[in-house]
Amino acid sequence: MMGKFPKLEFFGILLFIVSLFVVVFTEQASATICDFEKSPVEFVFEEWRSDVTLDHSKSSAEIGQLSMGLGGKDFLEKINKQADDSKIKLNRFNTEGLTHGPAGAHVKLSYNEKKVTDKSYCVYIKKAVLGFGFQKMLVYVSRQYAKNSCRYGVILDHEYEHVKRSNDVLTRFIPPLEKLNDFVKTTPIRNGVDNEAIQQNLLDEFLVKIREIVSKFDHELSVENGKLDTIERYRYETTLCPKSKS
Fold first, then answer.
1. Tens digits of per-residue pLDDT, 63-114?
2. Alpha-carbon distance 90 to 65, whole Å?
3. Burial level of 89, CB count in 10 A (0-12/13-18/19+)?
4. Is residue 61 pLDDT above 90, yes or no?
5. Contact between residue 107 and residue 207 where contact means Cβ atoms under 8 Å apart
6. What pairing do the DSSP bridges indicate for beta strands 190-192 and 120-134?
């Protein structure tokens, strides 16, 4: 089972922003007031990948409780619906494995500014740093299965497939994230009376672009991992280990 993580108001995954926060309207740069060329703008993209940390210390009940805090209730509703649709009698469902791989982002902007009058500033993005990916990847397998058992191997293979699919989705979204370089470098100089407000306006515009990409990433991540967490897949996996050898 792939853990589903709580959505923040911003864009569905964890987001850490380093910048000033002042909500004030700012105007577009005036060609006459801010009539100067920008210095070269720097864009840095950091791709985050994490090694897998394997946890074999928890019982199925403990893993099940952990999954409830990561969207497990919705997951069980999906499995029960699949069982009903397939006319499969589901006596009980134990959570024997879980993958917890929260994605995260880090955004930091620095600015160049020029005071053109006593009450007017020209501001543009000098450097943008965007980090995105998986900061950790935790895999849980129930301790009721010995590491040399057939069932342990089946569960571990299932969870590692979640890890692979998550990393594959991340790989597909690296190019559009790197392309935000074009947006940063073509964002025009902005003019206004409040320097901090102009910076916030520039940050907000950048975050809108990130949100558009990350919301698609979040959706595709859910879809790809959902293909693995189906009642048909679980039924098949239960046939791989004879009970006497599990």
1. 888 887 665 445 445 444 544 444 444 444 467 889 999 899 999 999 999 9
2. 19
3. exposed
4. no
5. yes
6. antiparallel
Contact 144, 128 (CB under 8 A): no
Helices (H), the chain: 60-68, 72-85, 150-178, 180-186, 195-226, 231-238
CA distance 126 to 6: 33
- Interatomic CA distance for residues 125 and 46, integer angstroms: 18
Half-sphere exposure of 185 (CA within 13 A, CB side): 10
Helices and strands (DSSP H and E) totals, the chain: 6, 9
pLDDT in tens, 144-180: 999 999 999 999 999 999 999 999 999 999 999 999 9
Spatial distance between the Cα atoms of 131 and 59, rounded to a whole number of angstroms: 35
Share of the chain above pLDDT 70, in %: 75
C-alpha 217/C-alpha 207 separation (Å) is 15
Digit-coded pLDDT (tens) for 20-30: 333 333 344 34
- Rounded CA separation 211/6 (Å): 16
Task: Tell me 97's DSSP state.
Answer: E
What residues form DSSP beta bridges with 111?
A: 125
Distance (Å, rounded) from C-alpha 234 to C-alpha 97? 12
Neighbours of 103 (CB within 10 A): 22
Q: From CA 7, how far away is CA 234, in angstroms rounded?
A: 27
Q: Assign 207 to helix, strand or coil.
A: helix
